[in-house]
Amino acid sequence: MKYSQFFIPTLREAPGDAVVASHKLMLRSGMIRRLANGLFAYLPLGLRSLRKLERIIREEMDAAGALEVKPTVVVPGELWKESGRWDTMGQALLRVKNRLNGDFVVSPTAEEALTSLLRDDLSSYKQLPLNLYQINTKYRDEVRPRYGVMRGREFIMKDAYSFHTDDASLDETYQEMGRAYRRIFRRAGLSVIPVRADSGAMGGSGSEEFMVESGIGDNTLILCRACAYAANVEKAACKPDFTALSPAAAKEAAASLPPPGRIDTPDVKSIADLCAFLKTDSNNFIKTLVYRADNIEADGLPAGGGTSSGFFAVLIRGDLEVNETKLAALLRASEVNLAEDTDVERLTGAPVGFAGPLGLKGLTIVADETVSAMTGAVTGALARDAHYQNVAFGRDFTPDIVADIRTVTAGDRCPICGGELYEKKGNELGHIFKLGYKYTKSMKVSFLDADGKSRTPLMGCYGIGLDRTLAAVIEEHHDQAGIIWPVSLAPFEALVVPVKYEGAAGEAADKLYAELARLGVDTLLDDRRERAGVKFNDADLTGIPFRVVIGDKNLASRPPLVELKRRGQGEARLVGLAEAAAVIAREIRTELAELDGAGGRG
Ligand code: ATP
Ligand code: MG
User: Fold this and answer.
1) Ligand 1 near 465 CB (within 6 A)
2) CATH number of this structure's domain 483-597
């Protein structure tokens, strides 16, 4: 491709709203342009990299046995009503009406579309397992699109959906997708951290997210200094720092403890104030919070149009925070939120800050495991300016549910090896998930098993955001001057820059360009009548890996020489004009092989 015939509108400065490197560089190098908040168009240069990423993903999905389909982006609202997500998806779901007043959805994800696609043609267990994927446009009406294509409203996702007769088969595909994802990210030149993730009501080990470390990441990762444990904070567990007791054992342990005593605590507002007032530590305090849970599911089915909501009293040791993702998963709710003050007053008979389990009526009590080790604790007394002392789990109150709902933080101990846990910020690029029966049940998919019995298939889903992945590659591979593409995703692999595109240099450039093309190297020839400085700046900005500069002086030596430079690496070196194409082709092969990983697929 000749530069003069291509379209690379580079910018000296990025617009002020671009604050992260990838966003700035994608705009400045002429990869993308902004149309509106969260809406970006790819220009020819950007599209080349996007297509290369798409190709890598397609190759790995195909190699893993997934089959590509092309469903529609606009989907009947009816399907989303069947699954229940028409009501639970909230504002992110773009609902549109057609001219006949019919409801439609612009796909933010495609569980419904693919489940519906399959159910009409699925009859026998012999058709399973089946893993279908697409690489297609998605739309999410994000509240706050930001960082360019990292969080856009319209974006491209590779999403795969697998269907199975049993758990073992689901697990096999889930593991295979995990391996394919590791290969995809490695080939893209990314260092990803696979972490355990929330799998909603599914529980278990049914969800993994692929994260890149990032100062601007929306996710907190909990990692172990001593072993490979890595989890999203939403899911992270830790080694207990308490001794859990059954209610009966706790009751026995509290035998010698005086009964709960009510104390006046006027003007004591915070836990810190209370600790100072009672000369005790926050970990001797049982925090009681009232939560509202929405869209609670029963038996994996949305319970009637999002009408099933409820309030819960949630207890946790005073030095800890409730993990709302764990709580929602435990209650099988789509969402949990702290109750409004007025609801707290109505339900506990006291203003916010004085709730406690003793004498609490009409609310299901959920306690974190830490509470099951507490005797002689302090709680609110369900009355303004009053608390109880000497409260004991098992003796004075028994929660309805005891589970791990704490937020793990740096300094807690690893649940696997006991090592110290620490935190990192991360950005999610991909997500694999065992969905179980969630959609196949609600959307009534069935097949006949070997005995002719009708059964519901299990399902998994697997997503990668292409735009976000591309941006993450730039975040990881750039310098002051611009992008430093890994060859696998570079818009062009080589750039031929004659200092002046005329005379001997022009001829040599044409010849080298032809030779590179013959060797299959994706090459851009900078034939512009621009100053060398302008050409070099653009070369650095667009980040094409191999740059060959052809100048009269080096051409005049015998044999004629050219300058070869790998973007991002030290100095240029002189190579013979005659060998240059072969050298570049070889180095590209070497780099691609390195990205592929020495062992190839594995
Ligand atoms: P996030 O928590 O960042 O909003 P998510 O968990 O909602 O993402 P998934 O539903 O798991 O995302 O979608 C799969 C992948 O799609 C994500 O891992 C991410 O790479 C990509 N993705 C999701 N939302 C966006 C977006 N608004 N812009 C660009 N890519 C996105
Ligand atoms: Mg996700």
Assistant:
1) yes
2) 3.40.50.800
